[in-house]
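tokens incoming
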């Protein structure tokens, strides 16, 4: 059964581990240097979102971070991608946290398609990401 709990500082290493595995599996468009760059940046954002660890039978499978009505981050262990867990997590976040906004890398077509399938629509596009790197961002809303 899928469960979640609010993360604390003691969960940050776990979150970074899940993020790195997931990003390597889903963000093949990132250069190795940029992957390292983002890994260094992630800890700066963890205290600014409502961070949840998602688990099955007490075994962590992913994490999410929200602020207000925006989903800032959702990463799953790559072995769990495609198993319906992302759907369950996103549905829970929409229903209980009233999530209506998400930004997604344009080059991450699997994630983009996932959010579009869940009723989100592209409302705008940024040519570069928030760090001024050449990775276009799609801004989605429902």
């Amino acid at each position: 059964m899928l469960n979640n709990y609010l993360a604390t500082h003691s969960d940050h290493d776990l979150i970074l581990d899940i993020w790195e595995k997931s990003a390597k599996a889903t963000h093949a468009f990132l250069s190795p240097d940029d992957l390292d760059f983002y890994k260094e940046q992630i800890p700066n954002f963890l205290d600014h979102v409502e961070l949840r660890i998602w688990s099955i039978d007490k075994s962590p499978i992913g994490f999410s971070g929200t602020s207000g009505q925006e989903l800032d981050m959702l990463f799953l262990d790559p072995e769990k991608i495609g198993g319906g867990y992302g759907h369950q997590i996103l549905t829970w976040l929409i229903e209980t946290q009233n999530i209506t906004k998400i930004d997604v890398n344009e080059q991450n077509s699997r994630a983009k398609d996932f959010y579009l399938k869940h009723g989100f629509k592209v409302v705008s596009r940024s040519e570069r990401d928030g760090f001024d790197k050449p990775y276009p961002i799609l801004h989605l809303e429902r």
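note: The chain is about 35% helix and 30% strand.
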